[in-house]
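Hi R.,

As promised on Friday, here is the backbone we talked about, encoded as C-alpha cells. Could you run it through your design pipeline when you get a chance and send me back a sequence?
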C-alpha cells in the first residue's frame, strides 16, 4: 500500500477520543440549574426591595417609547388626601393649553424663568401669560447653579420675572449635585434668597429633593418655606412641619400638556396658599 493510502486509513477504535463521562455532563447541568435558581432568587429579592424604583424606570422607559402617540388628553388621578394641586413646567413641556389644564383641578403652577447667570427659559413669558389668563395662581422659579455667583443669578431672575401683588412667591430650585465647596454653595444660595426677598418684598420658597436637602441644606435654611420633591413614597420622610409643598411625582399627565409633568400638592387649603402671595405693598427696586 502507498504512503498516501496509509494516511487515509481510519484510526483504530482504541485510538479515538472517548465520549465525555456521563457524570461530568450531569454535574454541569446541575451547576447551571443551581445558578439559574440562585439568579431568580436574587432577582426576586432585589425586585422586592427596589420594586418602586424599578417600576418607575420601567414607566419612564415606556413613556419615552410612546411619546409620539400621546394626544395631550392623558390624565393621572389627583393625589388623595389633598385639596390643592399644582404643577411646575418649563420649556420641556412645549406648548401648553392652560385653560384645559385649569379645567382639570390644577390650582397653582410654578413656571421656570431662568437658570444660572445667563439662561432664560424660552417659554417663560408665554407660560406666564397663559397660566394667569386661565385663572391659575402662578409663581416663577430659578434653577440654581452652585458654582455661579448668587448675586448674578438673582439679578437675572428679577430682570426676567415681573412678579406683582397676588402672585405666588419666587422659588429657588437647589438640587444640582456638582459643586466644589458646600460652604460656598450655601453662601451663594443665601445671597440669592436675600436679594430676591428684598426685591419683591416676600420670602422666597426653597425647592430641593429629599436626599439633597437632607445632605446639604437641612438646618441652614429653616426660615424659608420648603418645597420638597420626594417620589415613590406614600408621604414625605420629613415631618409636615418642615414643608409646605410636596412634589410627589415627575411623571404625571394633565390634559392640556402632551407628555409628563411634575405633580405637586400644597399642605393646606386654597386660602392658605393665597396667604403666601406677594403683598400689595411690595418693595420693588
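Update: got your reply. Pasting your designed sequence below so it's all in one thread:
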Amino acid at each position: 500500500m502507498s504512503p498516501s493510502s496509509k494516511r487515509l486509513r481510519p484510526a483504530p477504535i482504541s485510538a479515538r477520543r472517548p465520549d465525555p463521562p456521563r457524570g461530568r455532563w450531569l454535574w454541569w447541568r446541575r451547576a447551571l440549574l443551581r445558578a439559574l435558581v440562585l439568579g431568580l432568587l436574587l432577582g426576586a429579592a432585589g425586585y422586592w426591595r427596589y420594586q418602586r424604583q424599578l417600576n418607575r424606570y420601567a414607566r419612564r422607559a415606556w413613556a419615552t417609547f410612546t411619546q409620539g402617540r400621546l394626544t395631550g388628553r392623558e390624565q393621572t388621578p389627583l393625589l388623595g388626601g389633598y385639596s390643592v394641586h399644582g404643577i411646575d413646567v418649563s420649556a420641556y413641556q412645549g406648548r401648553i393649553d392652560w385653560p384645559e389644564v385649569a379645567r382639570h383641578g390644577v390650582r397653582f403652577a410654578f413656571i421656570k424663568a431662568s437658570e444660572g447667570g445667563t439662561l432664560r427659559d424660552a417659554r417663560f413669558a408665554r407660560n406666564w401669560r397663559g397660566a394667569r389668563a386661565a385663572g391659575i395662581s402662578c409663581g416663577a422659579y430659578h434653577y440654581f447653579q452652585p458654582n455661579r455667583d448668587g448675586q448674578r443669578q438673582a439679578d437675572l431672575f428679577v430682570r426676567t420675572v415681573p412678579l406683582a401683588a397676588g402672585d405666588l412667591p419666587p422659588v429657588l430650585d437647589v438640587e444640582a449635585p456638582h459643586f466644589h465647596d458646600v460652604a460656598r454653595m450655601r453662601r451663594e444660595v443665601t445671597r440669592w434668597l436675600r436679594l430676591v426677598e428684598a426685591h419683591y418684598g416676600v420670602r422666597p420658597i426653597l425647592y430641593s429633593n429629599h436626599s439633597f436637602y437632607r445632605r446639604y441644606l437641612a438646618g441652614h435654611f429653616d426660615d424659608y418655606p420648603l418645597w420638597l420633591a420626594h417620589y415613590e413614597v406614600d408621604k414625605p420622610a420629613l415631618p409636615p412641619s418642615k414643608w409646605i409643598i410636596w412634589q410627589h411625582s415627575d411623571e404625571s399627565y394633565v390634559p392640556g400638556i402632551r407628555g409628563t409633568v411634575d405633580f405637586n400638592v400644597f399642605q393646606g387649603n386654597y386660602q392658605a396658599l393665597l396667604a403666601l402671595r406677594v403683598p400689595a405693598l411690595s418693595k420693588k427696586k
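One thing I noticed while checking it: The two ends are 113 Å apart (CA to CA).

Thanks again,
M.
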